[in-house]
Design goal:
Elements (H helix, E strand, L loop, with lengths): L6 E4 L4 E4 L4 E2 L5 E2 L13 E5 L2 E5 L1
Antiparallel strand pairs: 1-2, 3-4, 5-6
């Protein structure tokens, strides 16, 4: 059930996904958007990367 390169840890009555960098959610199905908080200043354009971002000025 774990997605996007996550590690599945089996427990007695459930499982846990350890998400790869840049992913979140119960099954690691949600891509983290580092640009969501508008980190670039002076109208720079944000490019979302895996586990980071860059600003284009």
């Amino acid at each position: 059930p774990c997605q996007n390169g996550a590690t599945c840890l089996s427990r007695t009555d459930h499982y846990i996904c350890e998400c790869a960098p840049g992913w979140n959610g119960t099954n690691c199905e949600i891509k983290i958007n580092e640009c969501e908080s508008n980190p670039c200043q002076n109208r720079g354009r944000c490019i979302d990367l895996v586990n980071g971002f860059i600003c284009i000025c």
